[in-house]
Amino acid sequence: MNSHLGIGMTSQRTRDRLIERLRDKGIANEAILEVMRSTPRHLFVDEALASRAYEDTALPIGNGQTISQPYIVARMTEVLLGSHPPQRVLEVGTGCGYQTAILAQLVEEVFTVELIAPLQQRARNLLYELGLHNVRYQHSDGNWGWKKHAPYDGIIVTAAPEAVPEELLQQLADGGRLVIPTGGQGQAQRLRLITRQDDEFSETRLEAVSFVPLVQGDVS
Known about the structure:
The chain has 6 helices and 9 strands, in the order ααββαβαβαββαβββ. It is of the alpha/beta class.
């Protein structure tokens, strides 16, 4: 990815400052930090916002969606990987593809679903250009997951439903980890880690977060 380093506000020095901020906020997984250091976040936002790409903030990507704050991307990825990184991960909400790109460099296979077709197509094209070929894409309502390729060692949800969709729980492998924000629009949202052991699910409630709602709808 070195050919995409850019200059000025997208320079390596600017990226390094972001990584130090993430480390100061408690992100300890060096593999995640290194991937985020080398991934060109400015390519995932509109050119007019490129100068803000390495600020630790969410940014609009069109269609009422956002690219998540880098800290949240790092935090959710760190929780998902845990002490035994998953091999097969389902991502609900491709969006601009930035979280997808981070995951694709850390796990063997990524399956990603997105309801908004133009967003996913742009993400697919960009990840292809970046040489990330271990991702499969599905245009569908993420509330239903992607049953065809289940079970998944890990599931990460990048938008907030009011409650955890039952389909996602059922598509989680034994020993798998689901990282998901919940809480409807205008409600307090919280990040949750749900782990599965046989048919039992245990939950750890993590920090307060702010995500766009998990969209439901017809993909036709």
